[in-house]
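Weekly modeling sync, notes
Attendees: S.R. (lead), two postdocs, one rotation student

Agenda item 3: backlog of single-chain predictions. S.R. asked that every request posted to the team notebook include the full sequence so nobody has to chase files. The rotation student volunteered to paste the first one in as an example of the format we agreed on. Action items at the bottom.

Example entry:
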Amino acid sequence: MSNNLIRLVEGRTFVIGREGHIFINSITASKRHAELKIIDGRTYLRDLNSTNGTYLLKNNHLVYFDEGYVNPLQPLLIGDQKHTILSLLAIASDFIASDDSPTQANFVNRTEKSRG
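Predicted structure, as returned to the notebook:
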């Protein structure tokens, strides 16, 4: 299931927050709290200078997290809500089903020659 979900969203970028593609219903989450990208099957998370920060839960301790690759099963705190990357991607897959236009990856074919 998790590999299929990650393949579904490969190459896409999602904003997490109160006004993001991945909606977090909490006043402790910023409107644009964090950004989640799937790059070569790996999950990359970046805090977007949120008011309350993004934290990973490691050995029962909260550790501030700015940006980097994260295991999809890693527990994390956004605002006052605990999630995993997979739970956030499940929300994102609902978004894709309804309208994925803002999350489309933009690829440029560099092999095409310019016509002049």
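Discussion: group reviewed the output briefly. Residues 100-116 have pLDDT under 50 and may be disordered.
Action items: rotation student to repeat for the remaining queue; S.R. to check formatting next week.
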